Amino acid sequence: xxxxxxxxxxxxxxxxxxxxxxxxxxxxxxxxxxxxxxxxxxxxxxxxxxxxxxxxxxxxxxxxxxxxxxxxxxxxxxxxxxxxxxxxxxxxxxxxxxxxxxxxxxxxxxxxxxxxxxxxxxxxxxxxxxxxxxxxxxxxxxxxxxxxxxxxxxxxxxxxxxxxxxxxxxxxxxxxxxxxxxxxxxxxxxxxxxxxxxxxxxxxxxxxxxxxxxxxxxxxxxxxxxxxxxxxxxxxxxxxxxxxxxxxxxxxxxxxxxxxxxxxxxxxxxxxxxxxxxxxxxxxxxxxxxxxxxxxxxxxxxxxxxxxxxxxxxxxxxxxxxxxxxxxxxxxxxxxxxxxxxxxxxxxxxxxxxxxxxxxxxxxxxxxxxxxxxxxxxxxxxxxxxxxxxxx
Length: 392
Prior knowledge:
Elements: E1 10-12, E2 24-26, E3 50-55, H1 82-98, E4 103-108, H2 109-128, H3 143-162, E5 167-183, E6 186-199, E7 202-217, E8 220-228, H4 231-243, H5 251-274, E9 279-280, E10 294-295, E11 300-302, H6 305-315, H7 330-339, E12 359-361, E13 367-369, H8 372-375, H9 377-383, E14 388-390
Parallel strand pairs: 3-4, 11-14
Antiparallel strand pairs: 1-2, 5-6, 6-7, 7-8, 9-10, 12-13
Helix pairs in contact: 2-3, 3-4, 3-5, 6-7
């Protein structure tokens, strides 16, 4: 099975994200010279703002030994606040998306190949459904990097194991958005991975943002840290902190236990779904009209369009103070508005996060998403098709 149709191209930018169906790409066709090639998708003449050039760098920037010191931008996961980290890094993604100025990003060919190899291994998990080993991509001379590696491995495995349909092959395109030198021999690279999954139930398209700290070492390019823009990744980080790191479990012995833990949770959710019944909704905000204790099964649910519209107007420019403010707020805002329809309670019963829909109070006594369907557009889409909305 082909994991990826290899293309040494620096395609940029995902047009759907920039509200235009064009993608501009540049490819290195010669070792000593940058040769640009334009790839257009669709009939629109407008070009995306970022041009990416892959070049062969003649200067050897590799340092004489592996990176053993801990930089200021590194911290152990146990000391991190995953929600704050998500907010901070999401702002970088938003800035890239909202920057329409024409600009050129140049990336060394070996760095681009390193990221290509990493994303190949990341996507291969969907074929093998086995917890991956990302050791070769990391400089593991500090605890922070080991913890980050485990977070990435566990997240990739969880996403692959949770898919209900079988992935037969994956095609992908790596899109470089921004490269920022942050210290000697270390760059912060923001990139977008566009993926097409060929499954036994058809083709699925998806995309994910990554923020990587890539070091140039005597052993080649290595990751010091990687962040993934996905609420499920934030949840995985919280799980590692809560169930493993705060319990003093050594990273080296956590991997097998974590893999089994992920499978156990998926199987438990599946069993709960088979015994499905009405879900309780006892901890809902008090500003909802006609609050009900019991959430009916997702078959036919009355939908009050006016109540949802009123909520949309009320909270469009005045954030609902009962909820934690999210940086990437589009689906969260839609969920809050739809939830205002009388009779709609939090739904905590289902075989995966995309068939549940709920919030819960956090340490600040405000409501924060509890399931991905509340904040993820794809998960929300999956959650609602079984529902038949009725205005009667």
